[in-house]
Design goal:
The chain is mainly alpha-helical and 140 residues long. It has one domain. The chain contains five helices and no strands. The longest helix has 23 residues. It is globular and about 60 Å long. The chain starts with 16 loop residues before the first helix and ends in a 5-residue tail after the last helix. About 6% of the residues have low confidence.
Length: 140
């Protein structure tokens, strides 16, 4: 029970919660795939660079565009996901991934080859990453 006169508030729902779950799953797989310290440091620096480089793109996006999100970090989240995918691809961790990361890797591989993907498990996940991969063919 809260103290008398305590201020109570609820955290607002976050439109990007699904994306954060996907990024966490991919980061976990990167963590397991990279075992030597120099490679881990290099991957971490690349992640920070990707994050910072894409924040400015989100700030200048066209607000009239129909988007699946109500905040301005869609582009950054997608680029962070693609960076983590690339790290796993380069270091041989794509086919060792499990769970949600495995589902999103499968969806990404389908988007890379422009294969049908609406039937894939990750395609229905509530996130901008899933929406983009489901609806768009990509190149890395």
């Amino acid at each position: 029970m809260p103290a008398k006169d305590a201020i109570l508030w609820e955290e607002p729902a976050r439109g990007y919660a699904g994306d954060l779950g996907v990024l966490a799953a991919m980061a976990r797989e990167v963590n397991f795939s990279l075992t030597d310290q120099p490679t881990r440091t290099q991957a971490a620096l690349g992640l920070v660079t990707t994050h910072c480089a894409n924040l400015s793109r989100d700030d200048t996006r066209d607000d009239t565009r129909d988007d699946t999100r109500d905040d301005n970090c869609t582009e950054t989240v997608l680029e962070l996901f693609l960076y983590l995918f690339h790290v796993l691809e380069v270091h041989g961790g794509l086919h060792q991934a499990e769970g949600m990361a495995r589902d999103f890797i499968e969806l990404t591989e389908a988007a890379l080859s422009d294969a049908p993907r609406r039937q894939l498990r990750a395609a229905g996940y509530p996130s901008a990453i899933a929406h983009h991969l489901r609806e768009t063919s990509i190149r890395i």
